[in-house]
Amino acid sequence: MPKDIVRTALWWIETSGDRPIAVAEIAEAAGVSVFHLTRSFAAVNGIPPARYLRMRRLTQAAHRLVRGGEPIVEVALGAGYGSQEAFTRAFTTAFGVTPAAVGRGVPIPPHLLQESITMPETETNPPLMPPRFETTEARQIVGLSARYSFETNGAIPSQWVEFCTRAEAAGLPLTGESFGVCHDMAEDGTFAYLAGVETQGRALPDGFARITIPAGRYAVFTHRGPATTLRDTVAAIWNSYLPQAAFTITGEPDFERYPAGYDPTDPEGRVEIWVPLEMAGREPAAR
Fold first, then answer.
1. How far apart are CA 287 and CA 131, in angstroms?
2. Confidence band, pLDDT 50/70/90 cuts, at residue 126
């Protein structure tokens, strides 16, 4: 059995055969919450586990249709759909061609198929500094918010550019720290991201949003390097460190804390990643 949660999830999906399986069952097998599994899996693979599971089932169904010899309804049931009609809708949405057409020899563009993901045998996560632990008061962050999937979150840098432009016009302070807040993650892997600054008692400018980062205990990790490698550090946090940590994740917003004057291209740049936690017993020693 794979040790880390992404390997466990992949193993569970690929060995489940035709039996019905839910993301909650996979999360339980990996020993984490659905939220944690979704965050870890998508950080590593760029696709949430719910979508990967659905697309793997549809891709396996497509291969069965190409081989032929089975009624479409049997393929539909094997893919976890309760009816041929529901299967046909999902299949056509995913691949742009009906199951019947594939059975007649119409090809599916290969890039639409979700073949199995193979994890490398060796550890590929970057070195990760042990976190420090801090208790903080609630913070009010005002900024621009947008919703992303892990396939579309490459647009976050442009969100920051838009925020800086509009914040200056709105009179929001841009000379101090800034915050990138991840919140409201759904099982399908979509999440909201707010790029903003901390404010207190200030009217909300038109088109801006406000979110409260709750008071509480946080594990604080440090990313060192340009912003382009931040995703690797986040993947190491969620997939390698947190599954073995002596605390659980609350599911409250986690956030990036950028220092004043942060340069995203600086190879020595530092960003803090704050993850809300519940301690199980005494606070673990740094490692």
1. 8
2. low
What is this structure's pTM?
Answer: 0.71
List Cβ neighbours of 263 (8 Å cut-off, separation of 6 or more): 269
CB atoms near residue 150 (< 10 Å): 21
Q: In the chain, what are the domains?
A: 5-112 (1.10.10.60), 132-279 (3.20.80.10)
The pLDDT tens digits for 197-255 are 998 877 899 999 999 999 999 999 999 998 888 888 888 888 778 877 777 788 889 99
Q: pLDDT digits over 83-105, tens only? A: 999 999 999 999 999 999 999 99
Burial of 113 (0-12, 13-18, 19+ CB in 10 A): middle
**CB count in 10 Å sphere of residue 219:** 24
One-letter amino acid for residue 133 of the chain: F
The percentage of the chain sitting over the pLDDT mark of 90, rounded to a whole number, equals 49
DSSP string, 213-268: EPPEEEEEEEEES-GGGHHHHHHHIIIIIGGGSSEEE--S-EEEEEPTT--TT-TT
